[in-house]
Specification:
By secondary structure, this protein is of the alpha+beta class. The protein has five helices and nine strands.
Length: about 200
């Protein structure tokens, strides 16, 4: 069974600027991948990696190899949501033979992390940013930290709430639960995530 752990970050103004810069940088990488999805009709993560990784590493050296992989993952899961979710107005069955629309990621898009770019140990969180690691002290319950290390970590997402506070969300699951992520199931009334703009080709 999946469970979601949300942790707000008590960031200083300087740290907020660094997190925002990372968010903007991540969106730029995603937007460099989106035309490939549109042109090739490919959003499978492995296929996208082969199509884009080398060029992205050259184009965005400041992002590092693993964060580029995380951006590829982000575009892949967004493509799956937009083009395959039954509630999506842009489901492939509705598009027919029309060209795929172009997906544009706003600067407010979530940033995906993994165990290489973010770690938690002894109540301290260490995370990748464009200018070095950033660290926070976390008031985690022992059970939460144990879950972080013991359970299957499916997603780590950095997002900014409406009140301006940055928050990390950890999606944890069991090894036996390999089903689609819970967040992939959420598209009420066919609403596209607010950080995605879909540009249709005429």
């Amino acid at each position: 069974m999946n469970s979601l752990l949300r942790i707000p970050l008590n960031a200083t103004p300087e740290q907020v600027e660094r997190l925002h810069a990372l968010q903007v940088g991540f969106s730029r990488v995603c937007n460099a991948i989106s035309p490939v999805v549109q042109q090739t009709r490919t959003w499978n993560r492995v296929a996208l990696h082969h199509l884009t990784y080398r060029q992205l590493r050259e184009q965005f050296p400041e992002m590092g190899s693993q964060m580029v992989c995380n951006a590829i993952y982000s575009v892949s899961r967004t493509g799956r949501l937009i083009f395959q979710h039954p509630a999506s107005p842009f489901h492939l069955s509705r598009l027919g033979d029309k060209p795929l629309p172009l997906l544009q990621f706003a600067d407010s898009c979530p940033v995906y992390f993994d165990r290489h770019t973010l770690s938690v140990k002894g109540g301290q969180l260490s995370m990748f940013t464009l200018d070095g690691r950033m660290r926070f002290q976390l008031a985690l319950r022992p059970a939460d930290e144990e879950s972080f290390h013991a359970r299957k970590l499916r997603e780590i997402v950095l997002s900014r709430r409406a009140d301006g506070v940055y928050e990390l969300s950890f999606l944890l699951g069991s090894e036996s639960n390999g089903a689609a992520l819970a967040s992939d199931q959420a598209m009420p009334d066919g609403e596209i995530p607010e950080y995605i703009m879909v540009h249709e080709t005429v």
